Request: fold
Amino acid sequence: MYSDDVNRADFKKLALTRLDDARVLLKNRRYSAAYYLAGYAVECSLKACLAKKTRRFDFPPEPEQVKNVYYIHKLETLAKASGLLQVLRGTPKLDTYWTLVKNWSETSRYDPRAGNRAKDILLAIEDPAEGVLQCIKHYW
Reply:
């Protein structure tokens, strides 16, 4: 699933790269793909926070006992495991953004309607004042 080499820096870079990809796709009206990659940007940023909690910032190995916490795509579960769930509900606006973002799923790649939410999820992630990624960056 993950290489043994994946660490906090890798996840931070992946988060920003996936967000850039999502912007390009949105600009080119590839809405479903933009939505899909925007969610992965948040997933990677949360996994960077989890890696920060581990020894030398490495992402934990994949033993069965941690597999369900670290090796998943559920944003709310990752936020809880990283200790950020309450932080992401810290203000009314951030809570609204988080509510929209946490409903992302990796299965959205199969949902033709996911593209209808692309602009909204990117705004929720990127808002410079209270966006989800802006919040997470304080902890990664």
